[in-house]
Amino acid sequence: MQAKKAGTKAYPRGQQRQLTLRGVPADLDNALRHESQRRGASLNRTVVELLREATGLAYVAVEQDHTDLDRFFGRWTAEEGRAFDKSVRKLRRVDAELWR
Questions:
Q1: What is the 3-state secondary structure (H, E, C) of 20-35?
Q2: For the chain, what is the radius of gyration of the CA atoms?
Q3: Treating both helix axes as pointing N-terminal to C-terminal, what angle do 26-39 and 43-55 enclose, rounded to 10 degrees?
Q4: 9 FRET partner, CA 20 to 30 A, in 34, 71, 93, 96?
């Protein structure tokens, strides 16, 4: 999946706006900084993304269906995909004892 991110592509030069917030309570400031660290993003980017999410303007991840190699390798049916997933399910389990 790919998600379109805010930045220069989303807002070409001249279309970005700047806001100044005053009177931000300490608990909100702390929460925003914590969320910024959790996301691994700048405080500014985090606040912009949160505002987008809150206003319904968040970028939605678009799942891409890659079919360009199907002619070489074929394509599984949904039933074949489920059967494969079922057969490898045990291989996807993590043994907590091995990771101590």
A1: CCCCCCHHHHHHHHHH
A2: 21
A3: 100
A4: 34
DSSP 92: G
In angstroms, the CA 68 to CA 73 distance is 10
Q: Where are the domains of the chain?
A: 1-100
CA dist 12 to 17, 18, 67, Å? 11, 14, 32
Q: Residue 19 corresponds to which tokens in the numbers above?
A: 């806001």
What SS3 class is residue 62?
strand
What is the DSSP secondary structure assignment for residue 56, as one 8-state letter? T
Mind listing the pLDDT tens digit for each residue in 16-74? 888 999 999 999 999 999 999 999 999 999 999 999 989 988 877 666 777 778 888 88
Coarse DSSP helix, strand, coil percentages of the chain, rounded to the nearest 5 percent: 50, 0, 50
Token pair in block for residue 57: 């303007």
Residue 73 identity (one-letter amino acid): F
C-alpha distance from residue 50 to each of 69, 70, 79 (Å) = 38, 39, 39
